[in-house]
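Hey,
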Amino acid sequence: MSGNRILKHPILPITERPPLSFYWNKTPLTAGKGEMIATALFANGIRIFGHHHKDGSALGIFCANGQCAKCTVIANGKPVKSCMTAVRENMIVESVEGLPELPETTESPDLKDIEEISTQVLIIGGGPAGLSAALQLAEYNIKAILVDDKEEPGGKLVLQTHKFFGSVIDSYAGTRGNDIGRMLAEQVKESETIEIWTNSTAIYAFSDKKVGILREGEYKLVIPDVVLNTAGAREKFLRFPGNDLAGIYGAGAFQTLVNRDLVRPTQRLFIIGGGNVGLIAGYHALQAGIEVVGLVEALPQCGGYKVHADKLKRLGVPVYTSHTIISANGEETVDSITIAQINNKFESLAGTEKSFACDTILIAVGLEPVSEFTEAAHKAGMPVFSAGDASEIAEASSAMFNGKIIGVEVARYLGAEAPEIPQSWFEKADILKAHPGKIVCPDYMQAMNSGVFPVIHCCQEIPCNPCSSICPTNSIHLHDDPIMGIPNYDGSCVGCGECVRICPGLAITLVDFRNNEDMPLVTLPYEVGNIPLEAGEKVRTVDIDGNDLGVMEVVKVLKKHTTRTQLIKISAPSELAKRIAGIRIQSEAVSAPQAKAIMPEQMKDDALVCVCERVTAGEVRQLIRKGVTDINQIKAVTRAGMGPCGAKTCTNLINQLLREEGISQEKIVANTRRPSFVEVPLGVFAGSRGDK
């Protein structure tokens, strides 16, 4: 259908959707059946979805999750979010150019009474926490309705092609996230007490203790005994000159296009943010055949797991710590980025600016809980619980385990004969959500120069134990803690390579001196199938930090295995074998800076805070300096927060400005949320279908 579709992937199966035709600004195009409009446009090479009515700036996507409105288009005469609206046969899709003139209609809507449905538990969100909680409720025969706004439940698990960290027993560590999501969803579907509503959006928890749900375009009112909010999180935006260009979007949106929809939305990207989300997105890009020019992190050390950062460095992606973005550069879309080094006060250092050619900038600077349903239900006097990112931002392994705990708590609240939750569960939950700990590289292999043994390049305390769980000789142990400890080898290795295959961080290699003491075999994990490796090929080897160790020969490639991780065996000099941690696949030329840094024409305060209403940081800062600390007043004067996203994007940025101006939290008056958290056609409240 298009050259932008991914036709080969090392992890994901390629299944072509039946084609259908649609029109974009009167031009006939082809999409896959069931595909979202935004995905189909990207597949056809279209990245600009319209132009804003206030300043004519280009519009594209940001979240691809229905949380913002940047991707709005006109489909069959109605404004819709292109990331949440499926293409239909012969659909007429048009870009938004200024304020659209919608067609007049003389149709009489088919109105009917709103159906009211009672249930014991309403679960909002079908991600890792929601699915895990649902399984616990089913175990105690609690009836629940689980609503999710996607075609299939699974949440962000659907987007994760990497193997998960955590505990093998409690959070499926060593299994790929998309496999976990599919498995949990199937288990919930088999339950007799859990009803799943897909393509369904929770709108609001009303004061009469009813929750409005838009189900497949039809409005329902659900009356639950308990609300369980597992709606996940939304990505934070970032302010910098040029942040209004098309081609700037969240890492989650990128993963949606690449890993769910198998569309390659970019050729060259740059990543802002060194947490796990940004680091993993970079790895997913390489798996999809996309060049990753670089990644910047403002802190001296990446906040994500060290093994994720090391993995990128080994593959050839530079990671710039203590750096920040200065500007995105281009006319309508991104064509380059300028970064600079910063000091300990986060001030950019003049003379350190560098510019890089790229067509996309991924924002991965943190997540914000979708907590509004919890707040609204509580205000309405409804019993409400929350789990996963909607409660506290953490890894998906933590969300699954906390969903399990909350599921039992809700069952007990409703009177089920569930045993009291053991204290060990809470202790394990704390471990799974723990931040990365100290860095200590094991040195047991220094004296080992014979036989076969694993070299563990995992040097940081993180919650992960697949290597110790799978070792057939029980020779890998986690020091001090069965989940959080740093792995060490102490025993007898048989050279099976299972620890190399299962390690989520691809941080274990195997060194085998048995057949040749001068040129031992080194076994490396490899998952970038778009750059295939074969026996006899020469590859550039690197150490844990990506430093060059020389070109060496591939002796054997072991491909077939349920983990889908290839094992690459190379012959290496004995003095280097234990240092080899990976293979560089990306040329240094990809990440070379431009000859001269491009300095922004805009000032820092020209950066947008409210994308919907085009309100700049300078406009908001001016009000703050006049003594305005009520975000509602800022909204009334500037319209920041009045746009269709409902202040989901700008509230966090306005709070940042208030803090920068020295305003204490107790002086800030929070924004009053709208009585509907998601935009819906008014007719649905009268019984008219919202998708017609």
